[in-house]
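re: ur question from yesterday

yeah so i grabbed the chain u mentioned. its 246 aa long if i counted rite. heres the sequnce exactly as i have it in my notes:
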Amino acid sequence: MSEQWLRAPGERVDDLGRAGLKMIQNREDFCFGTDAVLLAHFARMRNDARVLDLGCGNGILPLLLYGRYGVKHIVGIEIQPRAAELAHRNVGINALEAYIEIRQGDYRQPEMVEPGNYTVVVSNPPYLKLGCDPAVRESQRIAKTECCATLREVLETAARALRSNGKLYLVYRPNRLPELMAELLRVKLEPKHLRLVQPRAKSEPNLVLVSAVLHGKPGLQIVPPLILADEEGRPTPEVTAIYEQS
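ran it thru and got these structure tokens back, copy pasting raw so excuse formatting
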């Protein structure tokens, strides 16, 4: 039955292993990675949260958040038409149209985001400056570089979308952590939790998970780092548990 949702060469249907959820992926353009899984696990919310995903890609975060927390009001915005269409199908293949809405467009535009309407914003934003990405495919360049939205614009949109005391969860790159902290504070998003992610115990971090609260009180908790694999390359018990819970 799932084959009816496949519409392009290279597409496949994967089982997400939670709540019977399935995911259409395109091996060339729109496959989700570890960062999305880690972000979905790092985020905390109740099932009555109103959630906004800035740059939802193929819809992986909305699906994982629905499966993990049972959230019943999630909006994902994606600027790339092909990715947004795939996200629509991923919502449809799981019959979640009543809970997850996908919008195709530029979330920087005021009409795309209702101000003060959300209790949680999540984002896996572009993390490379323009000209820094060797990706050949246009879809990957848009997803990885700031050609369509800078870090400042992402955070301005998040702050505009959130209610006071609403929470932002994002995954980013450690080498831009000083800029991230400065930009969060500039839009009144107070950093609350920070967790570095390391490929192995002796490796430098390659991801950082950050939470922030709009108009929150100062106070940042540094969480012990997450180690992805042991020295033999096997997933650590914590990572294995994260994938089982996602």
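noticed a couple things. Residues 81-93 form the longest helix (13 residues). also The mean pLDDT is 91.
anyway ttyl
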